[in-house]
Every structure is written in C-alpha cells, then in structure tokens.
Amino acid sequence: MTETIRYERGADGVVTLVLDDPSRGANTMNDAYIAGMAAVVGRLEAERDDITGVIVTSAKKSWFAGGDLDSLRAVEPGQETLALERATAVKEQFRRLERLGRPVVAAINGAALGGGYELALACHHRIAVPRAEVGLPEVTLGLLPAGGGVTRTVRLLGLTTALTEVLLKGKRHRAAKALELGLVDELVETPEQLIAAARAWIAAHPEAAQPWDAEGYRIPGGIPYAQLPAFPATLRKQLKGAPYPAPRNILAAAVEGAQVDIDTAFTIESRYFIELVRGPIAKNMIKAFFFDLNEVNARDVGDTPPIGTVAVLGAGMMGAAIAYVCARAGLPVVLRDVTREAAERGKAYAEKLGASKDLLDLITPTGEARDLAGAGLVIEAVFEDPALKHKVFAEIEDVVSPGALLCSNTSTLPITLLAEGVRRPSDFIGLHFFSPVDRMPLVEVIRGEKTSEETLRRALAVVRALRKTPIVVGDSRGFFTSRVIGTFTNEGMAMLAEGVPPATIEQASTQAGYPAPVLALMDELTLTLPRRISRENRAAAGDAWVPHPADAVLERMIDDFGRPGRSSGAGFYEYEEGRRVRLWPGLSAFSGTAPENPSAEIPFADVQERMLFIEAIESVRCLEEGVLLSVPEANVGSILGIGYPGWTGGVLQYINQYPGGPAGFAERARELAGRYGERFTPPALLLTKAAEGALFL
Amino acid sequence: MTDAYVYDAIRTPRGRGKPSGALHGIKPVSLVVGLIDEIRRRFPGLDPADIEDVVLGVVSPIGEQGADIAKTAALAARLPDTVAGVQLNRFCGSGLEAVNVAAQKIRSGWEDLVLAGGVESMSRVAMGSDGGAWALDPETNLATGFVPQGISADLIATLNGYTRETVDRYALCSQERAAAAIAAGHFARSVVPVHDRNGLPVLDHDEHPRPGSTLEGLGALPACFAAVGDRGGFDAVALQKYHWVERIDHVHTAGNSSGIVDGAALVLVGSAAAGHRAGMTPRARIVAAALSGADSTIMLTGPVPAARKALAKAGLTVDDLDLVEMNEAFAAAVLNFTDDLKVDPEIVNVNGGAIALGHPLGATGAMLLGTIVDELERRQGRYGLVTLCIGGGMGVATVVERL
C-alpha cells in the first residue's frame, strides 16, 4: 500500500505528519488513509519517549477533503457490522492521537472539511491560514460526521453552538469566523508561519491534553434542559417537515452523546451514522450533489474564443440580474433597454445587491443600440413575445461583433422559432437563467434545430465563466425545467379543484421537500404566465390537446376573482403591504364544503406523491423525446433549477430509489393514474426500465 | 365482586403556586400528613392498621416529591409499619388514577381499605422538572410530534372554531361558579385547613380564584403560547400533522387555562366490610373507570373516548349523568368535551374548576372526585362522571353513584 501520511521527525523531537495521498489530488478518508494513519499512530506511540510533539499538516492545496464518497455510498443494508468497524477504526486512531501524551497541533493550510476537520478536532490545537475553510458539511450529503465530529464539537463548543453553527446546516467557515466560533484556536498569515507557530505552541504546552480528558470537565453550557424540548420542534420547522434523516440523527446523537462519557458518545454517534449511510437518502444526495453535479460541471468544452463584452437586451428583473452576474464574473456589460432611464433602473439592481464600485463600473446602461457595438455575447431578456424578441435581435444583429454568440433567456419559447429572427441561426442558443439569477446556480442551455456544436461549446464556456452549472436540453415547449415545473404547479391546482384543502396542498408540498409551497409558488410566478403558456400549448397541440383540471382554476382565479398573483397583491394568498399573510378564504369556492379531515378521502401521502410523481413522469417523457440528454442533467437540473426535493437525488433518481425501484414506481404510478387521471400512466421508457430491472443512470 | 365505596374525600385548600402563595412554605409531605391526620380524626373507629396501602399521584416525582412520597407520608404520619405506600404518575390524571387503582384493589378482593389521592407543590417542584424522554429525547420528541399542552389547547380551539371570546366566556363562567360555590360553602366539607407546626392557621380557603373577573379583564391578557409556538417551532409541529389547518389561533391565556397551585387530596376507598368494621357509612360507589387516548399532539381530547368507555362499562349513557367534572386544564379542552360528547354544559363543572381554583397536577383528580360526591349529595343526584385530559393524549374517567 502506498504511503498516504509521511512521518518526518525533526531534531527537536517534533514529528510532522504530512498528509499526502499520492493517488489523489486531495486527501480523503479512504482505505489507504486508514492504513497510513494506523501505521503513524503506532509509530508515534512506540517512539513516544523521543517525541516532544506532533504537527499534522498537508502537502495538498486543501488540507484534508473528508470522507471517501465512493466507499460511503457503497454501504448497503446488511453491511452494518463492517461500517461500524470502519467508523470505529477511524475514531480509535483519533482517540489514540489525542491521548498520546504529547502536544498535537493541526497546521491547517487549506480546506479542512468533514473527516479532515474531524482529524483537526482530535488535535489539541488548531492553527489556520486565512484562506483555510473548516466545517462539517456531512449533513448536506445526508450523513453525519462520524469520525468524532458530533461528539467533539459538542464538547468543544457546547450543544447549542455545535448544532446551530457546525452540525445541522453543515456550514463551512472561513478561518476568521472559525476563530471567532472557537473552531480554530489561532490564525497566522502564511503557510510558512504555520509550522513555526505550531512548534512554538508545542514548546509552550508540553502537557497538552484535550479539555474533555481533564478532571472535572463539563460540556460548555451544560445540557440546556429548559430549551431542549424545542430543539426538535425548531428543526421540524426549519425543515418544513421534509424527510431529511441526517439532521434528525445529528441532533439525537449530539444530545444523547452529551449525557454519557466520550467513548460511549462515539458509539452512539456511529450507530446514528450507520443508519444514515446504509439508507437510500444519503445515497441519493451523494449521487446528486457530488457525482452527478461533478459530471455535469466537468463537461469538456474545449477551446473557445474570449467572451468579450456582453450585450444584455432588456433591463427588467431578469436582464438586470443577468447583467449583474456577468459583471460579477468580471465581464464588461452593456445593458440595453428602450430608454437609458429604464436601463439605469436595471443597473440599480446591482447596487441593491451591494455591488462594489469596480463591479458597477463594468455595467454600462444605454437606450441606444449603437452602444452595443463589438459585443461578443448577446443575452436577450425581454418580454416573452416572439415578435418582440425578433425585433430586438434585428436591431442589434448588425451592431454587435459579427461572430457574436446570440442567446435568448426565454423560459418557454422554442429556440428554433426565435432563431428565425436572426440571419445566423447556427449561432443562436437558449440560455435560460433562473430567478433570482444571483443566487440560482443553474442555467438551462437549449439547442435549437440549427444551433451549431461550436455555439453550444461557447455557450457552455459562458455558463462556466459565470460559475454556474449548465444542463443541455433539446428544444421543445418549456424545454425541460419549465415543462416539468408546470406539471407540479398544475397538480397543485388540480387538487384544489378536487377539494383538497389549500393548507393541505401547501403542507404536502413542503413536507415532500419542495422549498416553496406550490400555491405560494404560483403566486410568485404569477398565474397569467402559465395560462398564456397553456393557451399557446393548446393552440399548438390542436386536436391532440388534453385538457388539465388546473386550467379551469387558472381561468377562474384570473377572470372571475381577479387574483393573478403576488405582483398584483392578490393570488391564492392575501397580501398586506407586500407581505403574504394568509390563504385567500375564497379558495373554498374551489373546494366546496371541505370535510373536517379530508385525509379520509385523498390520503396525505397521495397529495405529496402526486407532485413528486408527475414531475418524475414528465421527466421520463423528456428523456424519451430527447429533450433531456442525460440522467445526471435531469437530476441536477431538477434540484438546482426547479426545486425538486434534494433528498430524492433528483427527478430520475427518485424513480430509482422508490421502494421496488422503477417497477415499484411504475406500479404506484398506475395506481395514481387509476385514481387521479391518465397523466400518471407510466411512459414506455419507464416500463422498459421496470421490465429490465434497470435504473436511470 | 366486592364493590368499592368512597367513605370520604378531603383536600387541602389550593395555594397560589408561587413564592407568595400561602402553601409555598409547607412541604408536600406535610400537606399529605395533614390530610392523613384529618382522616383519622374524622373516623375515630378506624384502626389505622386496616389501611393497607396509600396510593398517591405525583406528576413531578423528584426532589422532595420523589422517592415514593406515599410511603414517606405514611411513615411521617406515624401510620403502622404495615401500611404500604406507592406513588404513581399518569400525568394530570394521577389523582383520579390513584382512586381508580384503589377501587381496583378493593374490587379484586385483594385489599379492603386504601387511601388514594395525590399531591403537588407546584411552587416548590416546578412542572416539567422531572424531564422525560417524550420532551427531552430528540428522537422520541420528533417521532411523537411533541408539543406543550397549550399548543394542543390552541389547536383544539382552532379546529373547533372557539374564538378568544368563547374561551374567555368559559373562563368567566368558571370564576363565577367558583365564587358562588365558595360563598355558599360548597367546599366546606372537603377542604381541610392547613396549619403550621405550631398549630397556627396557614390557609383555610382556595387562594387562586379571582372573583371580580370580567370579560374585558380576561380579554386583555396576552396569549401564553403564541411565542413558544412560533419561535419554539411547536406550531409548525402541530400544523405538519393537522395539515388542513393553515395557522394556529392562540387563544389561551393565564386567565382561561388552569392555575398553577399547591395542594393535596385524599380519598378513603374501601369495601363494605371494611367500612362496617370502622363504623363508617359509604358516601358513594365507584361504578366504573376507564382509560383511553387520542393523538398525542392534539393531546387533550382523550376524555371523550375515556368517558364513553367508562359509561359503557357502567351500562349508562350520557343522559344518565346528573353531574360531570371535566378538569379545566384549558377552556377549549372542556368545550371540546361537552361539544363532542353532547353533554349539557349546565351539569359540567357546576362549582367552577381549575381555571378559577387551580390544578395541583397530581392531586386534581382526587379533588374532583370529592367535589362531585359533595355536589351529588347536595343535589340528591345519582350518577356523576369525573374525567381529566392527560399528557400523551390519554384520558381517564370514573363513574360514581351517590348512595
């Protein structure tokens, strides 16, 4: 086995352990590490009498990246003993290190996350450079830090701080903040100063030991019994009832571990960890947020010409925000609207977001087409009207650079149709940003019929320059994201029409894991947009049009009740001074006389699964039709773009992990189709997967 | 089967459950000893060696209320060494549970004479101070949807459409009925004044009622559970389960919820033979008792199924009842009970209840049993039902028949 940890003994008796996994760019907690650590800890103990202290540092850019996700996601039910042995081995090594009887210092020269920070926690003193980042992000992958991370942060910081600042949200902290919180003990300016500072600390603290191993040790703040009953409730409130097991297990392991000795606490921590790692949700999240995301981001775009100046057409909400993110990426932007004043208002959005002067200077507002001269990238973000879009492109096509990349930020209109308005349709492509653009990480890249390979590569390079994640999709009405989210919102409205109480629909969506309740989301999107899309789709489909029960709800909300959404101050909700206050009581017009407990009629589980299923089914159709090109893009796009619940691992992984796999999903879909409508009928591709026992991979 | 009879039911006055309350300076064990002494005074023919067990309900059985306070009180009261003692905890139903357990002992024929009751010095041993997995263990708390009872009461009010005015009106009624009962001396037989160690009077009347209460005054009180419901996350817990409710209307206040008080109660339960031996005349027969439960988040609706079950065991219906005591834990809990069981509110809590008088957790059930026996005698009624809502969703109910 190759050596992952170098053992370097200095003349002063200080041993430096250099983390340097030769097989990888970053150190991870793989088998080689475990073997390496076993060897060095054994040697430290053997040579203890000749050692004055230990420094743990890294030869990599990051200090230690954390758990080995390949091995973590391979743990299956039935392998609990193996998983426990592995977790125990890692913890025992840490325990031996912190009880060596010699000062051990973590010299943190880069990111120390997850298992990496757990190693640092097993040291007596943590020194970091300013660029270092520390934290325990395990929860974001559906796991808990089982290398003693729960147990030691509770003992270092106290229950409340450990839970809120480190464990439950998996926050990463920059060195300065980490120092403030007590996650690191000392900062030095440069990596060179790290080792000197570590040696100085060792010299000054020959008797170093962990506080929790000292006589009379008490957890900071003790156990806050009076507040403890509200911890789980607060967690439920924050999660909105979504089925994330990791925060629950972290909370339980932290509180239970605080009431016993540290070694028993380690065991409790491992038990809660193993329950997570063998279960489906951690696997879903590891796949989506690590493997699928990496695959999507790693797409090779080859060499592309420099982007140059960006011309953003339309300074409305989307245009203004796109201008901001381009400037944030260092690109000069000319922001054009019909008047300079309108463009100025768009630029003001960047100010509102707190942009620096340098950044603001990159944005030039204008009302004149000629100011777009020489732009290498055009992003159009005007009103969703093909004629208008054709017009604004016609105005600038001859002004911008002759080879400029021509992009439309349409969320629904076919790119092939829009490309008819330019003379270079092969240079035309869809770049669908999501609102709020400064925070939403996804961009949907839409190829029209005539879009060239080169144009696609250039567009992907733009997305990468903006530090966003692209998914490439085919041209169809609503592409992937708008089309699929439309099935979700339609399902919410259909249930309203069926008499499901509006509060139940909202609870079902958040308890299924959606970030926003479906009717509230409709109000944000405004009801007029989906109605227009629905009418356009109906016109386009002709005789093939299949009416949806949501259509009548939309029509009545807009025409009969005059409640088109939040921007008008009235939608499914009532608004006071722009604040959402309550569901509009008039919604009872849709539900008639709701019984006291309607779950007797439509089970709550059905209300949740109807939303999850209809989006998954529509995504399979997108895959069948070539609108979606890969499973990772479907999963990543659905989570990052349209709020499909993260615990599912994405819209196709949800099918894989449904009890019984695709076959179980298909069976349940048929059941839903029988009860709630043909739209749940499993598509052919799903039936094929089910029959073959295959997964969407 | 041997019948179980109530020979007497006595209680201390209820002292305000705070340091300024008259009973704050009296230890819980002393409250019980005072009542044991009173039983012996009232029944000079009773050989204390005939008492086989002392069963006491305590809801926070720690500290000076811990370590089996029932046997401790028996020892402190110098009852013979053969008199056993057991403490039990069925949360707010403990005092009635103690009576029911005593009745079961008698009806089984295994024991003949038992002292049953409860004690709670809420000013000295704070509610909730005994911890417990339900609230404090995150795994259990999450799995069961734990919320404080006030959230449950507000949830009931929301579901049933009880407005703030509705619950305040009920609270006012409790105050008015309690004031009238006190003025008419309705508690004179059951209330045993508390004296200090020198025989000087400490408290001879219930301290908690506010006889001058008005609807305006009640309406001005702040809702107790709005903040904990919001910031503590408990509203979210309740709404995630009761998903068809959009928000919880927080209507309960210190004025329409039960009062925090100190107090103790004892009921002498025995067989006909034991009574005969001591020369005692039975006042009532314990006809039937039952336990049941409801969802633990709405929590306070358990008395309905418990009452139905007890009535069925007794072979009676709601129409047979002359009186009902349903513990006034919260106004909405009582209103829900009367609405759901379709009981005439005019026969429920006719002498007021815990909103006016206070709810000394472990003792209340035994106090209510005494209240109903006294009132049945006064009205020459026949059947009465005592019931309490209980933590965890439980309900306990007992049917008594005046003799």
**What's the tally of helices of chain A?**
29
Order of helices and strands of chain B: EEHEHEHEHHHHEEHHHEHEHEHHHEE
Strand order of the largest sheet of chain A: 14-13-12-15-16-17-18-19
| Overall pLDDT confidence of chain B | 97
The total beta strand count of chain A reads 21
Sheet having the most strands of chain B: 10 strands, mixed
Rg on CA atoms of chain B, Å: 20 Å
- Rg of chain A, alpha carbons: 28 Å
- What's the average pLDDT of chain A? 94
Residue share in helix of chain B: 25-40%
**Main sheet characteristics of chain A:** 8 strands, mixed
Biggest contact: A-B, 35 and 26 residues
- Oligomeric status of the shown chains? heterodimer
- Shape descriptor of chain B reads globular
| DSSP strand count of chain B | 12
Pairing-aware structural class of the strands and helices of chain A?
alpha/beta
Which range best describes the helical content of chain A: under 10%, 10-25%, 25-40%, 40-55%, 55-70% or over 70%? 40-55%
Short account of what is shown:
The complex is a heterodimer of chains A (697) and B (403). Chain A is α/β, with parallel strands linked by helices and 697 residues long. Chain A contains 29 helices and 21 strands.
Explain this structure.
The complex is a heterodimer of chains A (697) and B (403). With 697 residues, chain A is α/β, with parallel strands linked by helices. In chain A, 47% of the residues lie in helices and 12% in strands. In chain A, helix 10 runs antiparallel to helix 11 and helix 19 packs across helix 21 (518-525). Chain A is globular, with a radius of gyration of 28 Å. Mean pLDDT of chain A is 94; it is low at 593-600. Helix content of chain B is 37%, strand content 19%. In chain B, strands 1, 2, 3, 4, 5, 8, 9, 10, 11 and 12 form a 10-stranded mixed beta sheet that branches. Chain B has a two-stranded antiparallel ribbon with strand order 6-7. The two termini of chain B are 18 Å apart. The model of chain B has no long low-confidence stretch (mean pLDDT 97).
